[in-house]
Amino acid sequence: MNNAADIVLVFLVLTNLMLLGLSRLGACIRTVALQGIALGLLPLLTKGGHMELHGTAFAIAIILLKGGVFPWMLMRTLREVNAQREIEPFIGYGKSLAVGTLILVVCIWLGSRLPLPEPVMSSLIVPVAFFTIMSGLFLIVSRRKALTQVLGYLVLENGIYAFGVALVDKQPLLVELGILLDIFVAIFVMGIAIFHINREFDHIDTDKLSGLRS
Amino acid sequence: MICALLLIPAVAALLSLLVRHTLVRRVLLVLTGVGHTAVTLAAWNTTPQPLLSGWLMLDAAGLLFLTITSILFLACSVYAFAYLAIQGAGKQQDYEEGMLFTNAPDAVFCACLEAFLATMTLVTVSRHFGLLWVAMEATTLASAPLIYFHRHHRSLEATWKYLLICSVGIALALLGNFLMVIAASKPGGEGIAIVVDALIENGANLNVPWLRAAFLFFLVGYGTKMGLAPLHTWLPDAHSESPSVISALLSGALLNCAFLAILRSYQVCAAAGQAAFCQDLLILFGLISIGWATIFILGQTDYKRMLAYSSVEHVGILALGVGVGAGATFGAMLHAANHSLTKAMLFLVAGNILAAYKTKATTEVRGILGVLPWSGVLWIAGLIAITGMPPFGAFLSEFTIVKAMIEQGRIGIAVAFLAMLALIFIGMTAAFLNMAQGRSASDLRPPGKSESILAILPPLGLGALTLMLGLYLPPAVDSLLRGAAATIGGY
Amino acid sequence: MMTTLKLVHLVLAFVAAPLLLGIINRTKALFAGRRGQPLLQAYYDIWKLLRKGAVYSRSTSWLFAAGPWIGFAAVVAAATLVPFGGARAPIAFPGDFLVLIYLLGLSRFLLVLSALDTGSSFEGMGASREVTFSALSEPALLIALAAVAKYTGCMSLSDMVVATVPHLWLCAGPIVVLVGLALLIVFLSENCRIPVDDPNTHLELTMIHEVMVLDHSGPDFGIILYSAALKMWLLGQVLVGLVVPAHTGVLWVDTLAVLLSMALLAVLVGIIESSMARVRLLHVPQLLVGATTLSILAVVLVLR
User: Fold this and answer.
1) Rounded to an integer, what distance in angstroms lies between the CA atom of residue A95 and that of residue A135?
2) Pick from A2, A58, B295, B475: most CB atoms within 10 A?
3) pLDDT tens digits along C38-52
4) Distance separating alpha carbons of residues B327 and B404, to the nearest angstrom
5) What is the pLDDT of residues C156-187, one digit of tens each?
6) Residue pair C68/C114 in contact by the 8 Å Cβ criterion
């Protein structure tokens, strides 16, 4: 049991649960930022001393982007659209937390049934990664605000990244950077879209985007 | 050569942002199309050198989809030249709700269009799954601003759905990538790089359960982008709200690119002996898509949405063709070409109709043949082509697929398939013929003002190509199609 | 020797319990820039109340007078089950943590009964809130203790704290963190501290615990205050015992460590009260469900 990695993974779970229970958008963004930083630390902690330059540089890039740039962009969007909290999500916070716990239990059960071809640093990694992915999806479908949906997308992405960082030793740098760049541009474009939605509709509630049907 | 394919549109996109003169920018757009098509056709003669240690390579399937993309882009760039000319700057009035809106700046439109081509080209030449993913996500990002060309609330809604649904879908495909890496890893040692060729070579050594999981995520992830029901929900909105020229590219080129990405993972699974598992899934998704499209085409009152649902139907046919395998694979490849050409042609004609009638409701458009003779004829021709009637190419490809089904004894699937095609035929014909015939309100267009040649030539050319594919397959095309079918295990 | 020590620990609990309130209040005063009450204010209050006479409403029955005292007896009984830091409790047997929870529940039950006995709508409201929140915090406490029990393989609270050695932090860090957090939230909720309840509030509508005891006076009220202080001490001991691995074997070091940890806990509560606002009543269940979730997570990690 790799203790440091385990603590980071449990921290990921806690941030997910917090996101399910938080209503203030600013607090949500900060939580996602914390999650991103923890995620960047994960490879540094697990690989320990023998990290090559490439891995370290990439981890730092992750921390800077997910812990700094994305939250900053989203915070700016938040200020522009002047929406402070998620009001009346489709699924309430208490229920979201309960559902989250349920998903967590299912994920851990699932993780125990998926045999990995190679031993990994922590047996928690697969369940936690799946849980993060599921939380992201849950946030996307259960919240009204466009901004929260973007946060859900980021959490989903974080989960997939956690999965990758733990199980996949080395991806070529080009690909890793490409992935990061794509996510960066995605968040950027979504931020702009939210800004336009706010200007066009005077709110960012996506359930009211219902002009197009059948 | 691959370098040229990627750089031509990429550099053009950059230039478009820099150039201040509108006309230069539009000419550059057309030149990009011409240049790209020229290089693509050159690639038919000489196989391009692989780049980046085999990460970028053109095989038969890649070349087929690249050619489709390239030709479509050429047609659309010419059409866009005319389209942008009539879309004046400043406030426009929305014809549905009457509110005022502006269009996206010309530079943004041209640059995104060229960047869109660059990313789609990258999809067709990528052999590395990671790079393929990067390219696929990039197509979403490059095309989102295009859908939001008309800056009003409906297109914004469509853009948001497109962005979010496709991004989430593609994020799941990223998970598929990682699962693929796990499937390719060896205990203790360096795993196999997730390059298509290396994976196929080591097909027998792949970890099957993880590979299956990877394929599932690829199918769901890229299937979202491809528009397989029930993951297609972004598609009708995006196609109906974006400018027709963009709808043509989305439907004809982008969906194919996503299909190619699924085919790549299918290739690997087939090499690992998992073809049957994948084929069952493809058949399932294919049938669901066709069925879903049937339901929504019958009684559809918006002709652009009808075309969009028809795209859902046709990607279903593609998936079904590959799922049936054997001879149907060839049919699927041919159908990909036919559908792209026909659908792009129809969307471009729909653009002409929309410009003249200022409505998307099928019930309010009457007498196209009288008002827009050229567009009217093309509209009818497109109807015949898209519903799979002879003499157009789609008839040949759908016939090939059905023939393979019957040869394999899958009578049930064949009957269901034909029944749904018949229903779609009824639904589309009723709507299209009503639009084409009859007498229109007379104040639409002063007689004597003919249709712009730039708005007629592109769909006409595309229609001619699909007609040619139905009547006569040139040997070069035939061998390319057979090569493409062979790479994915058919003939 | 051992018996004497256990009795000393018990006496220490009885004597030092109200001091926690003093530390919390001084911390809050410090944050607010005040001098604050004397550290021993809680003792003065209790002593003053115990010397006074009580006033009983004509509408109350014997339950009203008996409730506080039986509740006090239950808390005293609970005190015998709680270990002092890493040292064993005077009474320890398998499953004693269940009895502890039930005894604390009994004391609350009697308080609620005597509150309902007054027939006042305010007290009924407070009782209803108290019961609602405790119904949500008890699972968190129970599940957290169950997680520790499962991990250490001990069914007695005394055995559990003995098993809490520094090693536990290294090999099961996440579990200790989760249990610690869950117990902290339970600690705040059960002792009516911010962010669940504001002990200093003056508005009956926002009160939870305070409103239940509005009609009690004199010695009855004094003993309620003292029971509450003792309960805080006991729950604090459970938290400290499980999270702080202080068993060096040297008696005075251990005792000092435990007392210091308790003081730090009180300071922590003071800091939390100074830096947070009371959450809205509607959101309290969310907080408690969160604590339960943490406990469940700990159990899941243990079972994995």
Assistant:
1) 13
2) A58
3) 999 999 999 999 999
4) 5
5) 998 888 887 777 777 777 888 899 999 999 99
6) yes
SS3 B385: helix
Q: Is C276 left (phi over 0), alpha (psi -120 to 50) or beta?
A: beta
Question: What is the C-alpha separation between C160 and C154, in angstroms, rounded?
Answer: 6
Read off the DSSP letter of residue B44: H
Cα–Cα distance measured from residue B117 to residue B8, given in angstroms and rounded to the nearest whole number: 9
Residue A12 lies in a domain: yes
pLDDT value of position C75: 95
Structure tokens at C257: 């460590």
Residue A212 within a domain: no
Query: Is C297's CB within 8 Å of A101's CB?
Result: yes
Nearest to C289 by CA among C75, C86, C139: C139
Residue B64 pLDDT exceeds 60: yes
- What number of other Cβ atoms are within 10 A of residue B293's Cβ? 30
- pLDDT category, B387, cuts 50, 70, 90? very high
The confidence score (pLDDT) of residue B252 equals 92
Distance CA B135, CA B325 (A): 27
> How large is the average pLDDT for residues A84-105?
83
Distance CA(C226)–CA(C219), nearest Å, equals 10
Asked if B179 and A168 count as a contact pair (C-beta separation under 8 A), the reply is no
- Is the confidence at residue B88, as pLDDT, over 70? no
Helix B60-86 to helix B106-125 angle (10° resolution) is 170
User: Angle, nearest 10°, between helix axes C121-152 and C284-303?
Assistant: 10
Measure A3 CA to nearest chain B CA, in Å: 23
Query: Please, what is the average pLDDT of chain C?
Result: 89
| pLDDT on residue A1 | 46
- Cα(C208)–Cα(C194) distance, rounded to whole angstroms? 11
What is the predicted ipTM? 0.88
Q: Is residue A110 part of a domain?
A: yes
Cβ distance A1 to C296 less than 8 Å, yes or no, reads no
Enter the DSSP assignment of B362.
G
- Rounded Cα–Cα distance for residues C82 and C220 (Å): 25
Please compute the mean of the pLDDT values over residues C26-47 and round it to a whole number. Answer: 92
Cβ distance A101 to C293 less than 8 Å, yes or no, reads yes
H or E element that contains B102: strand B100-103
Q: How far apart are CA C117 and CA C123, in angstroms?
A: 9
Interface partners of chain A (CB pairs < 8 Å, 3 or more) are B, C
Asked if pLDDT for residue A118 goes beyond 70, the answer is no
How close are the terminal C-alpha atoms of chain A, in Å? 52
The residue ranges of every structural domain in chain B are 274-491
Q: Which of B198-202, B398-402, B406-410 bottoms out in mean pLDDT, i.e. has the lowest? A: B198-202
Give the amino acid at B81.
F
Which range marks the domain in which residue A203 is found?
3-207
Contact list, B296 vs chain A (CB under 8 Å)? 214
Please give the residue that has the higher pLDDT: either B111 or B100.
Answer: B111
Give the count of domains, chain A: 1
Whether the predicted pLDDT of A206 surpasses 90: no
Q: B92 is written with which tokens?
A: 């426009």
Task: List the one residue out of B150, B12, B163 whose CA is nearest residue B83.
Answer: B150
pLDDT at C211: 86
**Two tokens at C249?**
């074997």
Contact A108, C304 (CB under 8 A): yes
Mean pLDDT score, C255-269:
93
Look at the pTM and tell me if it is higher than 0.80.
yes
Q: What is the 3-state secondary structure (H, E, C) of C202-217?
A: CCHHHCCHHHHCCCCC
Q: Is A123's Cβ below 8 Å from some Cβ in C?
A: yes
Chain C: residues touching A (Cβ < 8 Å): 170-174, 177-178, 283, 285-286, 289-290, 292-294, 296-297, 300-301, 304
